[in-house]
Structure prediction request, 725 residues.
Amino acid sequence: MLFGRTKKNPIKIADKKVVEWKTSTCGYCSTGCSIEIGMNGEGVPVSSRGAAEADVNRGKLCIKGIYEHELFTSAGRGTTPLMRDKIYDDFQPASWDTALDHMGSEIKRIQAEHGPDSFAIVSTGQLMTEEFYTLGKLARGAIGTNNYDGNTTLCMASAVSGYKRSFGSDGPPGCYDDFSHTDCLLAFGSNLPEQHPVIYWRMKEELEKRKFPLIVIDPRVTMLAQFADMHLPIRPGTDVVLLNAFAQVILDEGLEDADYLFKNTTRPNDFENVLQDYAPDKAAPICDIDADTIRTVARLYAKSKAAMSIWTMGINQSTHGSDGVVGINNLNLLTGNVGKPGGGGLSITGQCNAMGTREWSSCSGLPGYRVLENPEHRKEVADFWGIEESIFPKKVGLKETDIFPAIETGQIKGLWLVATNPLTSMANTARIRKTLEKLDFLVVQDAYEDVESNQYAHMFLPAALWSEKEGVFTNTERRVNIISKVTEAPGSAKPDHEIFSELAKRFDNGKKIKFPDTTSEIFDEMRELSKGRLVDISGMSHDLIRENHGLQWPYKEGDTVATPRLYTDGKFQHSDGKAHLLSLPFFDNNESPDEDYPFWLNTGRVVEHFHTRTRTGKIGNLNKFSPTPYMEMNTDMAIELGIEHMKYIRLVSRRGDAVVLVQHTQRVPRNMVFIPFHFHDCVNRLTLGLLDPHSRQPAFKQSSVRIEAVDQKTAARLNMQARTF
Ligand code: SF4
Prediction:
């Protein structure tokens, strides 16, 4: 018997005439899907598919991966270095030597006039790990600036900070395989089906085989919340209160794993006392989750044989982001879940190689999770690189979110942006625009010369895209994956590591430090430097990683099996070897709705786009499915206010305004609106972005706004601007 559309309009997939498939890793999100790029007879990439043998994605890709080969021929690529004296002049093409000579002398001039830290560098989570390591060498060892950070401060800094405070080191303890063993899954501010579709598929597949409770904590009825057994629509910014309440119930009812706690943890004297302030009846009116639901979830989690928590930006992008992560760690320590199959915490990372920058870029210290504050670490790295230790500062400098205010005050005069686009990604972009205008010297290094931040650059350096070079990324579950070169970069665009190595030759220390030519030689250096560290990769090589479709660290010399989970032996990275439970008093400092600005503004992602659309905005099918900035508004509230579905409105905050198309939905409560963050000159004109005191990560998801009517024709024009470049 024949099934399906056999007679009428059968679906035909066009023959792309692929003669060879080349394996790489997707360059968008941190899931780490193994991707095969199909090449035609002329050696042109014409198709993409998931690699069936790869454990991460088992043949699947999301819509971004399916069209990823189209990036190689996408519009707006940079092909030659560009220079200009003033930002409103036209750019002139330049040779690499001319551009890098000028860049080197401008950096030296600025540092001589205003001090070494007056030149800042902000990179990304998009480069290959070998490139991050090379940039760290250049920034810390040759240029010698301490104002060096990555845009990962906008997405993962709170996870990093929380892990360090609880466990003594960064490094997500869990892995995707935990979905196969868990008996209870708690998801905080994580909309997996749209943010990380393939991780969602891994989770869903396990749920279908073996039912376990899925509990989603999110102010919005996200796609994941729609599939959940329980949805807790929490008041924005109050996760710490709910987590404290869970901990209070567990200790009050004697549900903790006392043996685990005794052997493996320490806790401050006031720990239980602080929790008393967040007993369910006291927490309920603050976080808007009723006391019985809090007790039910706490009991369910504590009584499960193995319980795990996942989270994304709903926790991290908050003034209490680091505390939220510590609260999740507290919960997993109290219940003895850390390091257990199916238990513990897994921060789901945003960018494809945000993990690589955390491990190796030296942004938050020195390579291999070493810290500047430790004299032994400073000496070890200085000796390894063959330079004087005195070039290293004794504590870390400004984070990205503090670098921009330091430009405003004149403390920083020069800036180098590497594959990052603050003119769209930072909170309060009107202020960022004025800030960039103040710089004496701005260099933008990117694969795309039409990236918005380039409007304010004095120099543009064209970089190769992900599979125009070879190296590695680390994914969310600490899996090091291979990136293969499948085609050449356009024009004279270079891999980022080559740009860093070439620039290094313009500095005295850069001539002393070895900058290897190939990424496999750079990887060999990292392997050596990783020995004995938590992030030990000494047993890996590019070939071994390729053969295995990725290997999870630690993977020491002589190892034959990768390490799926950390802390299985209860030994942590604090000097006392223990994990630290921490007290988390809550102070509400959010910009909450009031009479003038009565709606919460929530932001997030859509499945079709990645970050500031520098890449996905160029792909026809992705734009077709998600063409325009829009705002989700509660249907009942919209009808009450006379706001029609699919009409434009103006949204106003204390920072600025944005024009968006209204979509009626019950996904948001009456007092909240939601806008995807991908579009230029849109939601980040409105956001406040108060900073977490520990991680310096901005609270993108807690601002307040009001809604105003707008002339529909003018609005259509303004809305169009937000989706074009
Ligand atoms: Fe790429 Fe992430 Fe989609 Fe996988 S889920 S194909 S890694 S964007």
